[in-house]
Amino acid sequence: MPPFEHQRHKPPQELLAPRELIVAVPEMQSHVNLSRILRAAGCCGVRQVLAEGNARPDPKIARDALEVVQLKVHRSLTPAIQALREEGHTIVGLEQATNSIPLPDYAFPQKSLLLVGHERHGMSADWLALCDAVVEIPIYGRPHSFNAATSAAIAMYEYCRQWPH
Questions:
Q1: Is residue 46 classed exposed, middle or buried when 0-12, 13-18 and 19+ CB atoms within 10 A define those classes?
Q2: I need a surface site. Which of 39, 43, 86, 114 has the fewest CB within 10 A?
Q3: pLDDT of residue 36
Q4: Residue 141 burial by CB count (10 A; 0-12/13-18/19+): exposed, middle or buried?
Q5: What pTM did the predictor assign?
């Protein structure tokens, strides 16, 4: 086997078409979480993140993602989510809930909107009602859930695994 050599900032894999995944987040208590979600979105080739409320990403954490991911801030996300559903997006909630589907078992439609729960309060009943499906990440230890930004990154990566190019 040939030796391994470190390649810092390897160029991204090319996509044959833009990703049709959009990520939506409630107003986060921590701008760090929003910034990490933006960075993960950039790494996954997601071009748009919708945020509610006072969204102020930290450029030191989000890094180059702020150049390639469009952040659209809304007072309320509900009308934007409903409009995207009318455009053909499937609304996929990311939350621990009754009747949720384990993330590895869910087949993402190509045109999906990933709706992330709040880092402390989870997803409101109103937002759960907007979802066409709810997925959750299986947990094998404690604490009982991943951080919101980590969960979003895992779910985006699973979407990318299913829709690689």
A1: buried
A2: 86
A3: 97
A4: exposed
A5: 0.94
